[in-house]
Amino acid sequence: MGKQTADILVAGVGGCGASALYHLARQGHRVIAFDRIDPRHERGSSHGETRVIRQAYFEHPDYVPLLRRAYDLWRELEEESHEALMDLCGLLMIGPPGGEILGGSRLAAERYGVPVEDISIADCGERFPAFSIPEGSDVLWEPSGGYLKVEDCVRSYARLAQKHGATLNTDEFIVGFQSTGAGVDVQTNRGEYSADRLVLTAGAWAPALLPAVAKAANLHVLRKVLAWYPRQEASPVPQSTFFIELPHGSYYGFPCIDGKTVKLAEHSGGSRLDNPLALDRSLRPGDASGPGKLIDDIFPSLSPNPLRHDVCMYTMSDDGHFIIDRDPDNENVVFATGFSGHGFKFMSAMGAVMAELAVDDHSTSEIGFLGLERFATRG
Fold it and tell me: Which class would CATH give 4-48+151-214+319-377?
């Protein structure tokens, strides 16, 4: 087979890639995407049933406009797919007064008018009986928080992209690429492609494909464990998502969706992973230690022994913020990487942003604070 051509190529069809593929195809562009595994796979970062979505963003207030765009686009996806993908059951945040989570969330809420509510520990006992709140904690409620059904979101975007005319090749992955001036040539394990632009959304494989970016931003991959803990019989369980900051770590979790278990995970910590294909998917002895301490401190209604677990990967930037930009070594390549464990909620908007960058060379969203240049100017 000779070289295949397209307007735009998309390499990596996880959350961001599937969304970009959809937005490009819906606009009528000839687009071909490839991923080494089916988009619903569990070997990357976009799996594990659920991801938290929230607007009072403690990581940085400037994410809030992107989040509002993401909320709108998730609703559009629900409408077009005829699927319920987002459950806004609320978000309970617990932490030390002035800590990273509560302090940052209040700053974002104040700057952008995100509705939040302060809750006393006494009121928590009545409204949120599943939580044992440590004395001296600060508690904040965000009614617009909730969760996304992560695999369903990716699958819906990929399915609708193909309905709009996109080509999606699985069992295929990018080996190399090079700008040609007018466009870009791409080599995969199965063939050669030529296009005007390449959208690179390769997740944990990005550091190897973007060496200049990886060096500048200290891109690295962390192994992260998600686990489902059984409830004690007839005991109260969470009815909302939650984010908890304790001296031994930061944790997040979800309501008791199946009536039997509560999914918990540690956002802090994680072990470094050099090769994504060598990800250890077993439950190591220390993997449940942090959530076990969380259960001891906060959740007397849960058993500390998980019934099941999953493993995903965080692709971390040096400062924990996304990197959305153009490859400094290849002008016709745009990329999104370094989502640092808090990116999936943005993927509806990030796909739209990547489509705009590929077609128009700029985005209608304010993404300047997420550019690669910030690492060159730090000092």
Answer: alpha beta
